[in-house]
Amino acid sequence: MLAKMTYMDRLKPVLALAANYIKPDPKDRAQGAHLPEYCHKLASIIRKSHLRFIRGPTDVISYDPSKLAACKSIDEARPLVRIDWRAYGAWIGMVELVPQFLDGPLGRRVEAELAHVPPAAVDLVFGGDRKECTEAEIQAARDEAKRLREHAVAFASGWGTAALAELFQGIADGLTGMFNEKLEAANSTPREGIYDFLAIAWPEIQQMQASTPAKSRKDLFEWLQPFVKDGIVSLGDYDQLCDVCDEIGLKMKGRGRPRNSR
Fold it and tell me: How far is residue 238's CA from residue 30's CA, in Å, rounded to a whole number?
């Protein structure tokens, strides 16, 4: 079924590829080279949805060190520093979400959903070694989020009320950009579930793409059925899978059967 890899081990390279879309590094052209080609399209989709409000560090703040070195006061330095306060705030907002995952509404929602998920799926996420966070770790996350917000507010205050307003708007972006008020993934699409599963199943799909005799989309559809039955992934008929494959460029060598006529 699935190779013995945790959810995060599977997702990490795809997320790294998505993060590279935030600030592509010309020196890192090999980013995600070991992933199937369709993962590059999925990474782009993730970038445009969940990570759409995130900017790279040099997009948040930029300056010329040589010019700043000659400044004798904050007033002299201020015009030489460009800060995207809203992007800065978005990072703060995301940090403030962490305690919510550990011990808050988001965390309780995850716990409730895991209670109805087959044990095999839970093992996929936690690798069979699930570790609960201690109260000290949760409090440390709260303290760090508070410290970062206080520092950001003090920093923005030196730039005036307009900077503060943009910072707080950015914090709101970070808090609501990934989840809506119902604690559901924001900007989700009906196909998000199958996108997510194909993103973490890349080792098995890559193996199917390279197999002999050649595997087809029909083989992929049949392979997905146990996961559909267990509620791990939501997928309709074979035609829907073909639509998804066409959209993300997931190619199989085998011919397979044609779509149903519509």
Answer: 34
Q: Which spans in the chain are helix H?
A: 7-22, 37-48, 57-60, 65-68, 74-77, 85-103, 105-114, 119-126, 135-157, 161-176, 192-200, 202-210, 217-229, 238-248
Q: What's the token pair of residue 47?
A: 């970038």
- Can you say whether the dihedral through the CA atoms of 119, 121, 122, 124 is positive or negative? positive
How far apart CA 121 and CA 126 sit, in angstroms, is 9
Pair of tokens at residue 176? 């609501």
Supply the Cα-derived Rg of the chain in whole angstroms: 22
Strands 61-62 and 82-83: antiparallel
Taking only the tens place, the pLDDT of each residue in 202-229 is 989 999 999 988 899 999 999 999 888 8
* Consecutive H or E run containing 61: strand 61-62
Say which DSSP state 240 is in: H
In the beta sheet, which residues pair with residue 83?
61
pTM over 0.70: no
Domain ranges of the chain: 1-52+187-262, 55-184
Structure-block tokens of residue 4 = 């013995």
Q: How many CB atoms lie within 10 A of CB 90?
A: 25
Bridge partners of 179, per DSSP, are: 185
End-to-end CA distance of the chain: 32
More confident residue, 231 or 49: 231
